[in-house]
Amino acid sequence: MIRFLNLLFAPGFFQNTQVMNALLLGGVVAAISGVVGVFVVIRGQSFVGHAIADFGGAGAAIAVLMGINTLWGFLGFGVLSAAVVELMGDRAREHDLATGIVLSVALGVESLFLYLDTHFTGQAGAPMMILFGSIFLIKPSTVSIVVALTAATTVIIITIYRPLLLCSIDPDLARTRGVPVRIVSLLFIVLLSFVVAEGSFIIGALLSTALLIGPAAAAIRITHKLGLAMLYSAVLGTLAVWIGIVLAYDSFLWPPVRRGWPVSFFVCALILLFYLLTRLREKLPGSGIMMVRRVT
Amino acid sequence: MISPVKVKKGDAILSIENIRVQFNQRCVLNDVNVQVFPGEFIGLIGPNGAGKSTLFKVILGLLSPIQGSVRVLGRAAKSGDRLIGYVPQKLFLDPNIPLRARDLVALGLDGHRWGIPLPSKVRKKRVDEMLKAVDAYRFADSPVGQLSGGEQQRLLIAQALLTDPQLLLLDEPLSNLDIKSAYEVVNLVSRIGREKGIAVILVAHDMNPLLSVMDRVLYLAEGKAVMGRVEDVFRNDVLSGLYGYPVEVLHVNGRIMVVGGNNSGINGYPLECNCCKSEAAT
Ligand SMILES: Nc1ncnc2c1ncn2[C@@H]1O[C@H](COP(=O)(O)OP(=O)(O)O)[C@@H](O)[C@H]1O
Ligand SMILES: [Mg+2]
């Protein structure tokens, strides 16, 4: 048993504060992303989540230029772009072309500031950090920001749970029931930009969408109950991040370079694996019977 | 929340007087008058773009007319009024949405409230009763996204009934249904309406599935409305006056069809009914 654990967790794993911080923050962020992600999937807003991440990336690149915590950059630009998307209104948002243009503008701006980062701050690693995450470089101040953001997100999502569900199902129906649809949608997209900023910090602007919607997409194939789907989604996301951290730490001993593989790679691979497993479970001959039993 | 409202016999549940609704200078409803009494079943008929949904928005308090008054049980129309139950036309849901039939119906009870729903026996009992009332109990635990249009329609009706409405508004509930399901939904709504004394306004392209159940018809065209018994509204002179050009009301095998153009049935085209062709085939 001990030998197996030694094999699993490379020496020094539990003594390393960076690793412990990564486990703590990674778990918190994955869990809240999983919960919010289920609503993102229901509302069909995964593209919006991605656009927010790209604008956040530009913000983070600017933060590097200014010498401040990149999380502020992700957050500031993310919330700003979310508000703009929401105020554009329904028609513009549903427009495929508009979303495409917005996305490329975001990436263009991001590339400019990443370029400036590498040339003016001497931080050649900044682009990698912003695009693919920096979970092993967590400052103590970051911990408190993430905890505060997550607490706020949790409180708000619990508060707007039912009206948000009603808005997601049929906005007109929600309006007739006296739900302030604009306010609820705006609140939700702000929450969305909170968790996208956190996810971008952990596994990078390019991959935060995976953490947001991957576990949720898997979870809704395991259960039809909304609350349970959120729980499964949070658990799957957290597992992916934790196992990813363990493997990334272990990989310092792996070929080819013995300098470690990126966490983001493992996290995304695990999320994909979870999703495929849930799809496979549906295809299994026995599962059809299970479905029928559950339904009747 | 739910203030007890006494309905006196003879008092209108809905009273719309001389309303005028405009979108960017264009008049959609012009001098429309409607009175609906408790327990009545009204078919709201009219061609596409006649303003049927707009009229619903006005009744629901989501849109203010620039002129005239709308009163629901004597009170000015306002959104969030639980005296009105609203059934949207169709749900646009992902087949995998993690939402069971009973969860959708429960939203009628407390979907507008803040916070997460707490499990309670009373809540479950009310939802179960309503599921049974619309004959949806057998698929109560199925995912909503995988149910048929008719099954979803039942859930939407159950959801609307859970607010304990005096007036039920259904916007084209039949347009995505096959003919059998359409008749089932109409009979269901009319039965519940009569049992509970709820007035119903049901929007339809085709008035034929409603002929046996509706007390009166409200016909909208060209921004104007006529209201009355079926035989008083579906007349050449009445509808021609409404449209402002000659239209003809045809009676075929006990069905009614309104056609426009010149007065021969062959050159005429149906003005409000999409379903006649498929219906005639059965
Ligand atoms: N929000 C709006 N802004 C501008 N025009 C509208 C709006 N809503 C409806 N209309 C117009 O009002 C007319 C009536 O629409 P509607 O009530 O939806 O018709 P119906 O439900 O009878 O098919 C249509 O010509 C439509 O284009
Ligand atoms: Mg309409």
Would you write up a description of this structure?
The complex is a heterodimer of chains A (296) and B (282). Chain A is mainly alpha-helical and 296 residues long. Chain A is 81% helix and 0% strand. Chain A is built from 13 helices and no strands. In chain A, helix 2 (17-43) packs antiparallel against helix 9. The radius of gyration of chain A is 20 Å and the shape is globular. The model of chain A is unreliable at 287-296 (pLDDT under 50). Chain B has 8 helices and 12 strands. Residues 273-282 of chain B have low confidence and may be disordered. In chain B, helix 2 (101-110) packs across helix 3 (121-133) and helix 2 (101-110) packs parallel to helix 4. Helix content of chain B is 28%, strand content 24%. Chain B is globular and about 60 Å long. Chain B is of the alpha/beta class and 282 residues long. Chain B starts with 13 loop residues before the first strand and ends with a helix. Chain B has helices spanning 52-59, 101-110, 121-133, 149-161, 179-196, 230-233, 236-243, 276-281, and strands at residues 14-23, 26-36, 41-45, 67-72, 75-76, 84-87, 167-170, 199-204, 216-221, 224-228, 248-252, 255-259. In chain B, a hairpin with a 2-residue loop joins strand 1 and strand 2 (26-36). Chain B has 2 domains: 1-83 and 165-233, P-loop containing nucleotide triphosphate hydrolases (Rossmann fold, 3-Layer(aba) Sandwich); 95-161, no CATH class. Classes of the chains: A mainly alpha (296), B alpha/beta (282). Chain A binds chain B through residues 38, 41-42, 44, 158-163, 165-166, 169-170, 172-179, 219-221, 223-229, 294-296, and chain B through 60-62, 79-81, 84, 86, 88, 91, 93-94, 96-100, 103-104, 107, 110-117, 138-139, 141-143, 163. The structure holds adenosine-5'-diphosphate (ADP) and magnesium ion. Adenosine-5'-diphosphate is lined by residues 23, 28, 46, 48-54 of chain B.
Keywords:
heterodimer, A: 296 residues, mainly alpha, ABC transporter involved in vitamin B12 uptake, BtuC, 81% helix, globular, B: 282 residues, alpha/beta, Rossmann fold, six-stranded mixed sheet, four-stranded antiparallel sheet, 12 strands, disordered C terminus, binds adenosine-5'-diphosphate, binds magnesium ion
